[in-house]
Amino acid sequence: MRIFTFEKNGQPTIGLLKSSAAQEFIDLEVAGYAHCHDMVALLNQPQWQSQLEKVQKEAPAVAIKPLAGIKFATLIGQPGKIICVGLNYADHAKEGGHAIPDHPSFFLRVNTSQVAHQEAMVVPKASAKLDYEAELAVIVGKTARHLTLDNALDCVAGYSCYNDGSVRDYQRKGTQWTLGKNFDGTGSFGPWLVTADELPAGGDGLKIQARLNGQVLQDGNTSNFLFDVKTVLKIVSECMTLEPGDVIITGTPAGVGYARTPPIFMKAGDICEIEIEKIGILSNPITNE
After folding, report:
1. What does the pLDDT look like over 28-45, one tens digit per residue?
2. Within a domain: residue 24?
3. Statement to judge: residues 58 and 109 lie in one domain
4. How many Cβ atoms from other residues are within 10 Å of residue 219's Cβ?
């Protein structure tokens, strides 16, 4: 299944695609689903997937709407945690002059840094060095702590696309990356959550690309993770409780703009696309603050 958030009458509402290739969706509010305005609340329901499968089969005709023309909202607008993995591809570590790590690096994003599919990502007043990063997003669907490699994937609700937009000069102003990763409107998330049962275990073996104005700048595969999804989940859950709606961003392959000669940064008027095989395309225009 593919579920997404869109804006209707000024509030977020959840939609469910009729099928993976459909150009129609089910408006869960019209279909009478109780948890239709909050993705975190939906994922907190123990049987949410079977409930939505029933809606998908039984939705009344009045609840079926065309996908064209809707205004997407950020897939999960208020996740409890957005946990990001740095340097998770060897080629990206090398292009940035880093040693290949023997343990993943982690940093956090804040909710105000996020934008939706088709919403503008924002080049801030403070810097023109806004870089793209194509990443696989993992969405947690069950409360979990002290996971093992054997059961880690049991807590995954699904996967999506993420553009971990990074303001490079601010990222390097200190030893921590927080400022450069959290400017308002620099992290794009969507367009939808693809449930885990539709993808290879751990999102493994998926082609991932970043394109700027149609030019392929990143072209990688999630099979090249240094630390796969189950390993990342195990490590994070040693430290903190994972909860439904939490998001884990898994790192980016080589080809980022700052490592190029000359560097390439996103600028107003550009279109940046992140495509992940079997998930879809996350597309954003770029604007100035």
Report:
1. 999 999 999 999 999 999
2. yes
3. no
4. 15
